[in-house]
Amino acid sequence: xxxxxxxxxxxxxxxxxxxxxxxxxxxxxxxxxxxxxxxxxxxxxxxxxxxxxxxxxxxxxxxxxxxxxxxxxxxxxxxxxxxxxxxxxxxxxxxxxxxxxxxxxxxxxxxxxxxxxxxxxxxxxxxxxxxxxxxxxxxxxxxxxxxxxxxxxxxxxxxxxxxxxxxxxxxxxxxxxxxxxxxxxxxxxxxxxxxxxxxxxxxxxxxxxxxxxxxxxxxxxxxxxxxxxxxxxxxxxxxxxxxxxxxxxx
Length: 250
Known about the structure:
Strand content: 15-25%
Order of helices and strands: EEHEHEEHEEEHEEEEHHH
Mean pLDDT: 84
Number of helices: 7
Distance between the termini: 48 Å
Helix content: 25-40%
Largest sheet: 5 strands, antiparallel
Number of strands: 12
């Protein structure tokens, strides 16, 4: 999960600190990051956008890797500004649950950071938010504003019977990799057209944009597979016993 220890914004302007998104170990292990409608057109050009089972609902997510430690934020040097995904640009900020995004209070995730991580001030010497904090807060509000509609569209597509489990297995040498709990829209184009038409009439062009972006984004799986193959090959070479070592002795 993206958030682990959410608390209200600190009132003490002298102690509030932030860290780069690459400084949070738990984020480095994530390969599925929440996505909202307002950003999906851009995100679909970079990552596969699918749905992930979250209890009794399906959540729209971007796949940034195929295994823990291979995702976008596994790079320790990456900053929030380097990332296109709004949820990570905003991190560790989010907003409390509720109906109206503008009135929902901001929360901060007090998650563990890696040893040696350099803190970034949340407030300046005058008690005002720093530039870094303001940029993250802006991303937080944009993300929150689109959350409810994204969840509603996802639920309507699911209720219309348009979702199907996304089951696949990729072979990398002797290793088989598969991801569970993911869903795509049905591959039955006739059923998709028939069941989607009433939703388009009700919701307009935005539901079409979501469907089209999702379909286009699936081609990005090739990029993830190539990236993982490169990482997997590097790991194999590092772990392989050196020639002439004790492990290779007759």
